[in-house]
Amino acid sequence: MRTANGLPATAAEPLPDRQVALIDLLDRLLSGGVVLTGDLVLSIADIDLVRVSLNALIVSISEQNPAPWAAVPPVRDDHEG
Amino acid sequence: MTEAVTYAYAVARDDDGTLETELSGLPGVADAPVRLVRAGQDDDVVVAVSPVPAQDFREEALRAHLEDMDWLETVARAHHRVIEALAVRATVLPLRLATVYLDEERVRLMLKDSREAFSTQLSEMTGLVEWGVKIYVEDPPAAEGPAAPSAEAGLSPGRAYLSHRSAQRHAREDAYREAEQVSRDVEAAARRHAVARVQHRPQQGELARGPGENVVNDAYLVPQQAADGFCTDVLRTADGAPGVRVEATGPWAPYSFATSLDTEPVKRATP
Fold it and tell me: What's the domain range around A41?
C-alpha cells in the first residue's frame, strides 16, 4: 500500500507541497485539460503536441506499446453506479 | 520588457472574490505573476493567466522548446503549481498545456463566448477530485540472474538453464494473471466510490518510474469525501497478490476529465 512517492496514501494530504512524478503530470497535461483554440495554435490536437515533444522519451504515448493484454487508448468511460 | 503573450492555465469559479489573493506572489510559467481574467466585472467564472515572453511561446519556438525535456518540465510544473493553488480554494477546469492567446483581451472574449459552457462544467466538477491508479507487475526476483545450479542438481547445464527459464516464464505469467484479477478488483472497488474513469496509456520509457512494468494507468473522478475510502479499497486489492503492486496518486484537479467543452457531462453515479 504505497503512493508513487512511497508514502502511505492519505486523501487528506494537502494539495501543495507534493512533488508529483513528471510522467503522471504529463499524462494529464498532454492528454487532459480543456482544449481551447488559442491564438498561437500548436494545432493543439494532443497527438501533435505529444509527437512534437516526447517522441523518444515517453514511449508510452506511442502506438507501438499496447498493454500486455489489451491495447488501451485514452478513452472516456463515464459510468453510472 | 520584451513582447508578451498571454498564457492561460485554467478556468475556475471564484465564489467569494478572494481567489486573486490566493495567487499573489505565486510564480507562474516563466516566473510571471498570475492574474484572473473575467468576462464582466464581479463575474465568478475566471481564467487564470500570465504574461509570458512571445519569443518563447510562438508556435515555432514552442515546437522547438517542447523537444527540450527540461523546458517542458519547467513549464509543466509551473502550470501545475498554479492549478494546485487555485484548487485549494476553487473548483478548477485545467486547460491543456500551452494554451496561449495574444493578450488578455482575447482571453476575455473567449471567456465571454464560452462562459455558460464553463459554468456548467464547473458545476459538474464541484466537490470532485481526480485520483490516479496504477497497477504494476513486479519483476520476479533474480529474473535476469544466471540459472541457479544447486536448484537443478542432476540436470545438464543446458537443461538446467531451460528449466530455470521456464520457471521464470511461469512466474511472469502468473504475475500477469494476478494483475488482471487485481485490475478487475480495482475496477469493482473504484466503482463503489468513483463517478467516472478515464484510461491513460500504461507508462513506459525513460520517464516511467518502476519498479516493475506498468500495466494499468487509470484516472478516476471521486467525490472529495469518498477519497479516503476510495484509496483504502483500491490499495487493498493488491493484498494477497505478491507479484502485483497498486499505486494511487492524488488528489489531482480533474485534468483527465476536463478535456472538451463539447463532451457529454460527467454522469453522477446513482447511490
Answer: 34-64
Pick from B69, B196, B256: which is nearest to A32 by CB?
A: B256
User: What span, in angstroms and rounded, lies between the C-alpha atoms of B142 and A62?
Assistant: 30
Q: In this structure, is residue A53 part of a structural domain?
A: yes
What total of structural domains would you count in chain A? 1
Assembly ipTM: 0.86
Which residue of chain A is at minimal alpha-carbon distance from B203? A60
pTM of the model: 0.79
Residues of B (252-271) whose Cβ lies below 8 Å from A: 252, 255-261, 263-264, 266-271
Determine, yes or no, domain membership for A51: yes
Q: Does residue A69 lie within any of the structural domains?
A: no
Q: Does A45 touch chain B (CB under 8 A)?
A: no
- Residue B225's pLDDT is 96
Q: Is it the case that residue B95 has pLDDT exceeding 90?
A: yes
A74: in domain: no
C-alpha to C-alpha distances, A54 to A4, A61, B62, B155, B215, nearest whole angstrom:
22, 9, 13, 48, 20
Q: What percent of chain A has pLDDT over 70?
A: 26
Q: Do A35 and B263 touch (CB under 8 A)?
A: no
pLDDT (0 to 100) of residue B14 = 95
Sequential DSSP letters for B145-166: SPP-GGGGTTS-HHHHHHHHHH
Name the residue among B40, B110, B31 with its Cα closest to residue B74: B31
The answer to whether residue B238 neighbours chain A at the CB level (below 8 Å) is yes
Homologous superfamily assigned to B129-252: ACT domain (3.30.70.260)
Contact B37, B104 (CB under 8 A): yes
Q: What is the mean pLDDT of residues B60-72?
A: 82
Residues of A in contact with B93 (CB under 8 A): 34
Closest residue in B to A73 (Cα–Cα): B201
Predicted local confidence at residue B207, as pLDDT: 81
